[in-house]
Q: What sequence folds into this?
């Protein structure tokens, strides 16, 4: 069995006042050594959280595809690494939909992040109308194919895929267990030989109440958690459910 990964995505939340939560999450992670725990705070907190919480993985929530240059407001993969991050979330639907990121843009970011040794969480997921049209599997498999770099020996060791149906993010609505299993199986199939060692996580309204049943699915290697990762009290039971 693969070691489960529980990744907290703080989105645009958190400030120096949230350091106590980060420390409490680190303590909860230390109590579950069989689980790989990461938190992805906003850029402004990465260096501080990385130095205060050495027992957990710290990640960014995005990076630019270029190494450096005239890109006002952007952060490169090597800058994340320099600040203490070892992981980055890429292709989140809030960036794909809200900021117009295409599969090609996401792919360039994935390549940039892997090149500096960051572990990539590549997010994919369909909108509600796509699911209602019966196109969810084809859409998501297409995103996976078009957002991943061309096969390389290092690619599999350095990334995970997070399936996050857009309609389940922040809504309190999770996908049906059988739909999660079917989608993860389809993604794994699309990955071919690499499918056996690339972790596939589920995301979208994961909470202490539903984590155990989602994480018990054969095809689910962990969870990407938004809202419930902001407080250690809500995040700790999810970490424990993965242990
Ligand atoms: P949520 O967010 O857990 O608040 O639904 C998940 C995500 O967007 O990664």
A:
């Amino acid at each position: 069995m693969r070691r489960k990964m529980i990744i907290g995505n703080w989105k645009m939340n958190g400030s120096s006042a949230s350091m106590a939560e980060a420390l409490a999450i680190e303590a909860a992670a230390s109590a579950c050594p069989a689980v790989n725990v990461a938190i992805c705070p906003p850029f402004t907190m990465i260096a501080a959280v990385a130095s205060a919480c050495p027992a957990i993985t710290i990640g960014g929530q995005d990076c630019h595809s270029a190494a450096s240059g005239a890109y006002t407001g952007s952060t490169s993969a090597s800058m994340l690494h320099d600040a203490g991050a070892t992981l980055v979330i890429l292709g989140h639907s809030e960036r794909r939909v809200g900021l117009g990121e295409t599969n090609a843009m996401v792919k360039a970011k994935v390549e940039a992040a892997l090149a500096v040794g960051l572990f990539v969480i590549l997010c994919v997921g369909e909108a509600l109308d796509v699911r209602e049209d019966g196109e969810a599997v084809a859409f998501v498999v297409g995103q996976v194919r078009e957002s991943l770099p061309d096969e390389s020996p290092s690619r599999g060791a350095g990334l995970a895929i997070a399936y996050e149906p857009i309609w389940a993010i922040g809504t309190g609505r999770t996908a049906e267990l059988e739909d999660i299993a079917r989608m993860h199986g389809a993604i794994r199939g699309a990955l071919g030989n690499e499918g056996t060692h690339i972790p596939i996580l589920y995301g979208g309204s994961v909470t202490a109440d539903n984590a155990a049943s989602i994480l018990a699915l054969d095809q689910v290697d962990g969870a990407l958690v938004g809202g419930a990762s902001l407080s250690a009290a809500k995040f700790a039971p999810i970490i424990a459910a993965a242990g």
